[in-house]
Amino acid sequence: MSVWILIVIILVFLLSFIVTGRVRKYALDKEILDIPNDRSSHDRPTPLGGGLAVAILFITVIAILALSGFVSLPLAAALCCGGLLVAGIGWIDDCFNVRPSLRALVHLVAAVWSLYWLGGLNTLNLGIIKCSMGAAGSVLAVVGTVWLINLYNFMDGIDGIAGSEAFVVGFIGGSLELAFGRPDLAVISWLLASASAGFLLWNWPPAKIFMGDIGSGFIGFVFAVLAIASEKSGALPLLVWLMLLGVFIVDATATLLRRIVRGERWTEAHRTHAYQLAVQAGYSHKQVTIAVIIVNMILGCAAAIAALWPKFILLISVLVALALIVLRAEVIRRCTHDQSSSLSVNI
Length: 347
What we know:
Helix content is 74%, strand content 3%. The chain has 347 residues and is mostly helical.
């Protein structure tokens, strides 16, 4: 790793902070605001679209790295063109609102585009074996990419949580990629972490600007592409990336399944994720976000162990998933109890 790469990463962080400030001013001038409603976790109108800085800087630097030969052209095409699609529809949605069906279609096109340039996903490293999936693997990868785009958006509901997730996961993932001999994937991951950190300075509780769909969807997409590219390269297995993103994946997926089973209109906005229930129970945005950061650091340790002892990747992945499911259930139980106790006292 050369010094100029470190300089670029630091520069991206500084520019992200500066550009986010400009985006905030633009959003205030144009009244691009998130207006609180009964399903919101905030209580005052807040500028939207801070993720624009993350997307612009990330795509620009990746394109430059591709032209310099540091990042392969197929990987750059997957990240930049697919990322532009996701970020573009996200920005339009932040400004004007678009139909969910149109947004989903664009996400699907971006996912298919990225899988085409990555060469599909025909095998999956499970540690003890490599599972051959054929064309079904690519289909699952497309579905998984679309889901990660959307679940990251679902989890962007309180101050600091999505930005800190991107920073911590990006930093740890990049460090593991470098350790396993993929400096290009490491730099891509660190660039995302760096751009997210610059935005996070504005979004840390109490937030002065929100990421918006443009940022949350874009970050989810980049993580999906990174995970698939890493799996295909033989470096860091996809399961390790899923572990790193475990907090978001488990909470969003479990919440969605629960709403579907209950017959609720799962496409509507709600406040039933574990992190949202924690805020409703009286914990501050900062407390919940810091708790998620701590869990992410623990997941980073588990991911590193799994990467160092690849024969145990599947076992560790299952144990991590079970631990997160139990943790989520306990958080919901305690928060529901706290809310009920508070209501009883008020009555």
